[in-house]
Amino acid sequence: MLLSNFMITRVKEMVIFLVLLYIASSSAVVVGKQSNPFPGEELQVEAKLRLLNKPFVKSIQSEDGDIIDCVDLYKQPALDHPLLKNHSIRISPSFDPTNGDSSTPLILNYSLPFSQVWRRSGSCPDGTIPIRRVLKHHLLNASSLERYGKKNTNVITKRDFRMLEHTFAVGIENYHTAAALITAGYSYIGAKADINVWNPRVEADDEYSTAQIWLRNGPFNNSDSIEFGWIVNPSVYGDRQTRLFIYWTNDSGKSTGCFDLLCPGFVQVNKDILLGGTIYPTSAFHGQQYHISLEVVRDFDQNVWWLISSTDNIMIGYWPCDIFSYLYNIAVIVEWGGDVYSPRMHQEPHTATAMGSSNFASDHWSFACFIHQPRIKDYSMTYKYPYPSFPFTPDVNCYSGENYAETLFTEPLFYFGGPGRNLYCP
Ligand SMILES: *[C@@H]1O[C@H](CO)[C@@H](O)[C@H](O)[C@H]1NC(C)=O
Ligand SMILES: *[C@@H]1O[C@H](CO)[C@@H](O)[C@H](O)[C@H]1NC(C)=O
Ligand SMILES: *[C@@H]1O[C@H](CO)[C@@H](O)[C@H](O)[C@H]1NC(C)=O
Ligand SMILES: *[C@@H]1O[C@H](CO)[C@@H](O)[C@H](O)[C@H]1NC(C)=O
Ligand SMILES: *[C@@H]1O[C@H](CO)[C@@H](O)[C@H](O)[C@H]1NC(C)=O
């Protein structure tokens, strides 16, 4: 009796031991996999880091975890671009960008100046620009070393978009969906808006969610695009904070272009704004609303597209037109709204990555994310409400969009967003 009890105890111990062994070995496999996702490519990771991170004059440790390097203006990544070898840096536009702007700043206290967390820990000296340092763990978490900082895009799908009597082809990158206000069919040489700032849920590390402005030109599967706004993107930034971002491509994201300064292209001139930097605070449901105000405008004398923070009229930097083919002159489509990317887009179950505030557009003020005073600039050199323009919401059960005015004679806000997966978006 005693003996068999003893035996049973031993068997139990044995089972527990085996289970523990199994857990240990399986977690060893996981650990091994994570620490070496590109077998034998440790050297390549080091080389990529040396390529991405420029020598700096000063470096700042931000309380949000970022390290910011202040890099000599004349040694910035853009100047590695083969077409910018002899580029002479423009310090300010050849015209006053406030000319022809009749939009009114947000007057209610739902606006705060553009604020970024890193500025609490220091600032960059004159003659330098702040660049977010890429760390080893950022690269190890990327889907591939080669595509770090780029969009994971190879296929572009065409969605036809009907506006009045015309049909426009809008290219949507594969695995993306959008809810946006679109205008098309004229020549646009600038665009701006105030973008309400939120921190939506991003379900998986390889997904992202944005609120942004797009300027596009070119055939849907090989187009040029300039994009800017805020983003939650764990695979690039290693966390789920809301960050300022810019993006460009000259081939629909197939091989060129990237976020922020992660590949040569965009020339930054401002020392106070960090591309990829955390924006704070974000808006609260039924509470204070915050926004960022951004603008892109073509400078024909300098042959560049300037990016401007319009609240404080700060020139952040520019895209030289030389890096584009179709956007070399003008944009023909401008969009304002949200974009969600997931490698599992349009599959069941749908991603639960949210857009905007994560509420649907119909929830309106202080519950849904909005675009305030979308404006385009045309050859008249004045800013105008984009007319005609319409909501483009290809997956309306997951993410919606609505142009809505509180009262009859006020200009509508464009509300957009949604939770992703829900009863009607399974
Ligand atoms: C840069 O300048 C050099 C010398 O003037 C010239 O040979 C070269 O073609 C230029 N490169 C570009 C990309 O313009
Ligand atoms: C303005 O701020 C005050 C105090 O913070 C707040 O009570 C009020 O609701 C705010 N108004 C708007 C429109 O957000
Ligand atoms: C774009 O699409 C057209 C028609 O679908 C096709 O003929 C063309 O080869 C595509 N171009 C690129 C660069 O993929
Ligand atoms: C990145 O990888 C680390 C482990 O290497 C993991 O803890 C983390 O959750 C991953 N994701 C992000 C977004 O950093
Ligand atoms: C597109 O971008 C790539 C990479 O920056 C560049 O090599 C190429 O020349 C650009 N194409 C055009 C037409 O500007």
TrEMBL record:
It holds the Pfam family Neprosin. Residues 169-426 form the Neprosin PEP catalytic domain. Residues 1-28 form the signal peptide. It comes from the Eukaryota. Keywords: Signal. InterPro entries: Glutamic_endopeptidase, Neprosin, Neprosin_propep. This is Uncharacterized protein LOC120280712. It comes from Dioscorea cayennensis subsp. rotundata (White Guinea yam). The gene is LOC120280712.
